Description:
Blueprint (H helix, E strand, L loop, with lengths): L7 H7 L29 H4 L7 H26 L13 H8 L7 E3 L5 H6 L4 H4 L1 H4 L8 H4 L10 H16 L5 E6 L6 H13 L3 E7 L2 E2 L2 E2 H4 L4 H6 L5 E5 L3 H16 L5 E6 L18 H8 L3 H11 L5 H23 L19 H18 L8
Parallel strand pairs: 1-2, 2-3, 3-7, 6-7
Antiparallel strand pairs: 4-5
Helix pairs in contact: 3-4, 3-15, 3-16, 4-13, 9-10
Organism: Arthrobacter bambusae
Keywords: Oxidoreductase, Pyruvate, Thiamine pyrophosphate
GO molecular function: magnesium ion binding; pyruvate dehydrogenase (acetyl-transferring) activity
Amino acid sequence: MLTDEPGQDAYKASNPGISAASPRRTGGDLVQLISPEGERISHPEFDLWVSDVTDEQLCSLYEDMVVIRRIDAEATALQRQGELALWPPLLGQEASQIGSGRALRDDDFVFPSYRDNGVAYCRGVEPTDLVRAWRGNASSGWDPYRHNIATQQIIIGSQSLHATGYAMGIQHDGADSVAVALFGDGATSEGDVNEAMVFAASFQVPVVFICQNNHWAISEPVRIQSHIQIADRASGFGIPSMRVDGNDVLAVLAVTRIALDRARKGGGPTFIEAVTYRMGPHTTADDPTRYRDANELEDWAAKDPIARLKALLRTKGLLTEEVEARTQAKADEVARSLRSGVINMPDPAPLDLFKHVYSTPNSWIERQKDHYSRYLESFSGSTQEGAL
């Protein structure tokens, strides 16, 4: 299992300007450890943060990205076939999600957006649970406290406030876990994200803000939203930031580890801008050909996160037929499980609507439940036993 711990002491000894207490402000520099062609780029300031990543773990990161791309493709197909109401594809953003997700400790708590299914996969959420809400089967697909990841947030950017509040609780408890908020470039124009950064900076709480700059907030290009690099927005709040090649899983892993380490040691919040690209539609209800130049998509396809890691593995002689076959078999099995789970998912009972609204008994909800139960009885003449 990858964590954020290895390499810290050696890193801080050789790079005092990028210690946990004072991370490097990269400005216009884009942290990159694997080129689009799959070449391993040496970067003394960041190499030590991934020095523990073995060849086997590189292959594991590759498998993770292949599997979540397959989950994404299968969910998209299920929506097109009428099995899901909607789906927000993550195609092209696999490295941003796997790199950050695999840097986390079990006791860290994640606050994701609706697109962060790769991070949820890293936290152990079952593929079928990723789509329960999109099928209209449940308000949430999983128990947040079992996986230490909140339910996916549809309201743009509001999870950043939740993350900051949770981080304030961590600080109050004296723990060294970290809250992590993930959102897109468009969310940085929302009041919630800005308010979250104000509080995070004021109280120096252990929170990491990860912005996946995929260049499009639905049909709004990032160049319209921000006339400076998005990472530069954080400096106005006194929050140090880093820009990373979001299609480079190793670089994302490194910068996330740096931010987590800083937060654990009382250094406060960090803002990460992962520069990536949304290769598919905003959701399956969107048609990106109406606003996006095909040449732009072609340019970014050449920077595909899976293709570049695959090229590196080939160069290192790690992508054997056995590894390829094992990876493909895992992706196929997960896809089969997802499809079977969706098609055979039982419908919720009518009175399930009133479950989990409040954590403790509530007379207002109980009264509504009683009224609705008696309404149902008027049709059948009997109570909905299976739903009580």
